[in-house]
Amino acid sequence: MQHRYSKTFLADLYRRLLTIRVFETRCIQLYRQGLIRGYFHPYLGEEAIAVGVCAAMGPHDYLTSTHRGHGHCIARGADLRRMTAEITGKRTGYCQGRGGSMHIA
Questions:
Q1: What is the predicted pLDDT for the residue at 77?
Q2: What digits encode the pLDDT tens for the residues 51-73?
């Protein structure tokens, strides 16, 4: 079965891939600077998995992730500022900075 996807759809997938890559690269820098406490597991090299899975999901589908969940959050449309706040332990994060990198929700 052959599928045809619009250029807009494919460009959106690529944008998500790139967003995950840039976000994770920046998080690695923050981790090396000591701004991310605890464990940090980057999602580099796995971007297409999250983007592909999330593109196939419906608006009411649930997603469970692993300790490398940043890519899934971003591919699903999470706010990057709130994610950064969570990962760096700030109250403005998704879990008020308590979940950190491994337990982002």
A1: 93
A2: 999 999 998 999 888 888 899 99
Selection from 75, 25, 86, 11 nearest residue 47 by Cα: 75
List b or e across 62-96, with b for residues whose CB sees 16 or more CB atoms inside 10 angstroms.
eeebeebbbbbbbbbebeeebbbbbbbbeeebbee
Q: For residue 35, give the nearest of 104, 102, 105, 100 by alpha carbon.
A: 100
